[in-house]
Amino acid sequence: GVPAEHAGIVGTGAWATLVRESFDEAHIAHVGPDRLDLDSGFRLVFHDKETGKKTFVARYGAEAQGNEATFDPLEPGEGDVVHISGNTLLDHTAAGIDEFMHRAGTDPSARPWRLVINPTRTLALVNDHLLEDLVLARPTWSCNRQEAATLADRLGVDVDDSASYTVGGGFDKSMRALCAALGETLRAPLVVRAGSRGAWVREPGGETVHIEGYPTKPTHTRSAGPCHTGVTCAMLARGWQLPDAVRIANAAASLAIQHNRAGVPVCPSYDEAVAYAGDEQAIAA
């Protein structure tokens, strides 16, 4: 949908070669540092089909060996969207993220570019100082409901969870309450994803809005969250408003699950996503 660049560290070796080939296949330019003395890391996912249990085994590599200056060369331009993954918040590279947060400042209206954070399940382990700096930067947060609940707990947000998290009745009420309470505390745009139910969106000073999803058969073993966040970023970079961007992201996540490779969701093209969402005007544009 839009030109994309990766500002993280890529190493040298077998795994790094796979990373670079994947970037080339997806037309993503690597603009970050290179490490000649260390390979990139990898993660293995073992999935038990009988129990549904997943076991993750990770080996960190060059991408985890950053420092305070890692992202100093990064100068986002007007209209750019900078996406930060939660995977970079736990290792040495997190120091570079923290420095970048200081440069970003605490007033989103003073930035000509947009900051988006997908904290992933690592959120519970992020140190208090870094979490505070992330919150003060007031980025757009994209979380699933478990991550949103963890963030609310970390920040001491009082959420009315009297309604049970069940699809049959209290689910919508609970999601709306979580998104509203957390969004008010963050004073920043918030997207809380809920799989086939779509996502709940709240922007500062506004009401919480439910953006319906596009249910599909769950044949995947990995989350479609990265696809959803990536498409949201792409649509924001195109100038779309957040609720409309999330609507296309909901459609893209559904297609990604349908087109998964060995259980890993594969993000569709821009045209495929907007067509699935029924947005013919976007296709014409």
From TrEMBL:
A single Gene Ontology CC term: cytosol
Species, as recorded: Bifidobacterium pullorum subsp. saeculare
InterPro entries: PfkB_dom, Ribokinase-like
Record protein name field: Sugar kinase
Alphabetical keyword list: Kinase, Transferase
Domain Carbohydrate kinase PfkB as annotated: residue spans: 3-263
GO molecular function terms attached to this record: kinase activity
